[in-house]
Amino acid sequence: MKKKKLNSLEDVFDFAINNIKDQMGHITIAIGGIPKISSSNDIIGNCIQEWIPQWLEDNGLEMIANPNSQQFPDFIATLDGKEYAMEVKCWNGENSPAFDLANFDGFYRAVYDNPEMLNAKYLIFSYKPTTHGFQITNIFLKNVWEITKASKNYPIGLQVKQGSPYAIRPFPFHKHPSTSFSSRREFVEAIQSTREMFPLDNMIDPIEWLINIEERFEILTGEIL
Amino acid sequence: MKKKKLNSLEDVFDFAINNIKDQMGHITIAIGGIPKISSSNDIIGNCIQEWIPQWLEDNGLEMIANPNSQQFPDFIATLDGKEYAMEVKCWNGENSPAFDLANFDGFYRAVYDNPEMLNAKYLIFSYKPTTHGFQITNIFLKNVWEITKASKNYPIGLQVKQGSPYAIRPFPFHKHPSTSFSSRREFVEAIQSTREMFPLDNMIDPIEWLINIEERFEILTGEIL
User: Fold this and answer.
1) Which of A204, B16, B24, B224 has the fewest Cβ atoms within 10 angstroms?
2) DSSP letter assigned to residue A95
3) What is the pTM of this model?
């Protein structure tokens, strides 16, 4: 594997495609020197999500993990002096992607506090379990609005627990990429509509939320929301 | 490691104590031949729970995993022609034991259907994370009533989610073993009282539940509840 300076997230993506796609993986746990192979999906998913950032760091990418591992984003990556919010996700590509994109309430608040996080990039790996491990079958670099869309019952793919919005969920973007939200703004409006469906005391008012994000997103990034 | 015929769960426990206690463990994930060490608690816990049954099978214990991995019990072990319901648990011994013993509603129903499951044995491992992996620090073989007790707010250690009982939780039995429930019957009555606190439509009535379990437990096991 040749080292190459990674100057952008597109470089990171190309690097992953060139070096990891189609590769086989395996997980071994040894106790007292006796090795066994682990093959449950939970373990594979968690392990890949732990392996990828270490491997990217080995290859010169500066990544700072979020001290709160439950919070969005997973990492801040520094590329060519610029910081990027970055999430690393993976799923068993034989099923629909079932990873949580974020806790709904937490995301609603985090985006309000840091609207530039809407530009976070998702580096996503699909794998296929094999007899002795797994194979990395595909890799995606996506914006959040490219892996989400309205679901049957809600303005966005949403896991609802006992009447409250819980996790924002992706749709099978790998199969039907063209049906995602078409823009960042459409995604943000879907979050707003979802909040309106599930109002919460002491939470920022959805109208104020959007106006405020719109304004500050432009100041912070120079781009129109 | 010398093979020895395992004739009882006490044999299994002795075998684990003699061969695994104080041993170091490590988890490696390799993708495309590049190995990394995994060290998150989630992964360690899941991996140990996957390693132990494989290792016991290597050593001649017949274990049949529950096809529904979310349901109690994890395994049916056959020892000397007799079947035992068995759970394998582990936790980071530097914290309080936080593993779920069972989903409350599922357990309430399962014990009603199969009262002999009250004799299920818990083979429990505590570990300590180390720089490159973990160490198995202690091993316990327990009955369910030896790892539970009344909590501050409920008749049993209970995780409550949005007003409903969710998971039955152990207490720090490794530190204060003498404060557990003193008998199987005391444990069963605590489950009954918890159900009375959280009545559920279409669920077996708690009074009938206990009478029925009492009667059938004796028929099935020859022991008094």
Assistant:
1) B224
2) S
3) 0.80
Domain count, chain A: 1
State the pLDDT at residue B170.
97
What is the predicted pLDDT for the residue at A201?
A: 84
Closest chain B residue by Cα to residue A29: B27
Report CB contact under 8 Å: B25, A24: no
Q: Which residues of A touch B34 (CB under 8 A)?
A: 1, 55
pLDDT of residue A2: 52
> How many angstroms separate the CA atoms of A126 and A134, rounded?
10
- Complex ipTM value: 0.86
How many Cβ pairs within 8 Å bridge chains A and B?
101
Q: What are phi and psi of B207, to 5 degrees?
A: -70, -50
Residue B225 lies in a domain: no
| DSSP letter for each residue of A71-92 | SSPSEEEEETTEEEEEEEEEEE
Q: List average pLDDT for each run of 10 residues in chain A, which is 225 residues long.
A: 74 94 95 90 85 91 81 84 89 91 91 92 94 94 96 95 90 96 97 95 92 95 92
Compute the distance between CA of residue A84 and CA of residue B187 in angstroms, rounded to an integer.
53
Angle, CA of B40, A17 and A171, to the nearest 5°: 70
On whether the CB atoms of residues B128 and B91 are closer than 8 A, the answer is no
Measured between beta carbons, the chain B residues lying within 8 angstroms of A39 are 50
Query: Rounded to whole angstroms, how far apart are CA atoms B87 and B75?
Result: 6
Q: What residue of B is the nearest CA neighbor of A57?
A: B36
Amino acid identity, position A14: D
- pLDDT, residue B124, reads 96
Mean pLDDT of chain B: 91
Cα Rg for chain B, rounded, in angstroms? 19
In a domain, A139, yes or no: yes
Is B94 part of a structural domain of the chain?
A: yes
Enumerate long-range contacts of B214-220, CB under 8 Å, 24 or more apart: B216/B115, B217/B115, B217/B116, B217/B118, B220/B115, B220/B116
Q: Would you say residue B155 lies in a domain?
A: yes
| Structural tokens at position B160 | 């409550």
User: Using 50, 70 and 90 to split pLDDT, how confident is the model at B182?
Assistant: very high
Give the domain range for residue A147: 9-220
CATH number at residue A78: 3.40.600.10
Give the CB-side neighbour count of residue B50, counting CA atoms within 13 A.
Answer: 21
* Cβ pair B46:A54 closer than 8 A: no
Q: Test B32 with A23 for CB contact under 8 angstroms.
A: yes
CA distance B223 to A73: 55
Within 8 A of B136 by CB-CB distance, chain A residues are 31
